């Protein structure tokens, strides 16, 4: 069975500082990995994905994530956080092209203080 | 505008009274899915559909039914709702081939069962 762990319920950073949201995964095949963001009272929005290729993927709003196969991790990063980045972030994994289920982590609440 | 719509957005009902939450997408997506979001548990998949008349169980299908008679619609049916189905529900859709496409989420339906 596939699973996703987001070890931090909350991440607090000051505006302008680097932001990292951690994610580790467990799948039986090659992982397809995704990050989504949820703003208050809204549905989830896609940020970025890793399917294959370069381990560093860039996405929306200046976010990027690094795939690390040996550590089974897919951490989300932003070099300089904004107050508007405050939201709930979800990591998700699909276990390869023959797996049609998407498993989400429990989510990490990010608060960026001015 | 490309979107996933859900109705109703908010619903309060009583135990045992059958209800349907509708979901519709206008992007000609093959794949559609229902999730429930609960605090500390993230999103859990209820059912998904690969195409018209093709549906399969997700991680938490008990107490729910779905149907996919048309490509654009994927209603979620609770035949006898119980208080443990009080949750925030999201419908999502994506292109199916290889399923390495990101999912588009609806705005959510907040259901309370008393």
Topology:
The complex is a heterodimer of chains A (114) and B (114).
Chain A: E1 3-5, E2 10-14, E3 19-21, E4 24-26, E5 32-38, E6 44-50, E7 56-58, E8 64-68, E9 73-78, E10 87-94, E11 103-104, E12 108-113
Parallel strand pairs in A: 2-12
Antiparallel strand pairs in A: 1-4, 3-9, 5-6, 5-10, 7-8, 8-9, 10-11, 10-12
Chain B: E1 4-7, E2 10-13, E3 19-25, E4 31-38, E5 42-51, E6 54-57, E7 65-66, E8 76-78, E9 87-94, E10 104-105, E11 109-113
Parallel strand pairs in B: 2-11
Antiparallel strand pairs in B: 1-3, 3-8, 4-5, 4-9, 5-6, 7-8, 9-10, 9-11
Helix content of chain A: under 10%
User: How does the helix and strand content of chain B classify structurally?
Assistant: mainly beta
Overall strand count of chain B: 11
**Order of helical and strand elements of chain B:** EEEEEEEEEEE
Which radius of gyration of chain B do the C-alpha atoms yield? 13 Å
Please tell me the overall pLDDT of chain A: 92
Structural commentary:
With 114 residues, chain A is mainly beta. The model of chain A has no long low-confidence stretch (mean pLDDT 92). Chain A has strands spanning 3-5, 10-14, 19-21, 24-26, 32-38, 44-50, 56-58, 64-68, 73-78, 87-94, 103-104, 108-113. Chain A is globular, with a radius of gyration of 14 Å. Chain B has strands at residues 4-7, 10-13, 19-25, 31-38, 42-51, 54-57, 65-66, 76-78, 87-94, 104-105, 109-113. Chain B contains no helices and eleven strands. Chain B is globular, with a radius of gyration of 13 Å. Classes of the chains: A mainly beta (114), B mainly beta (114).
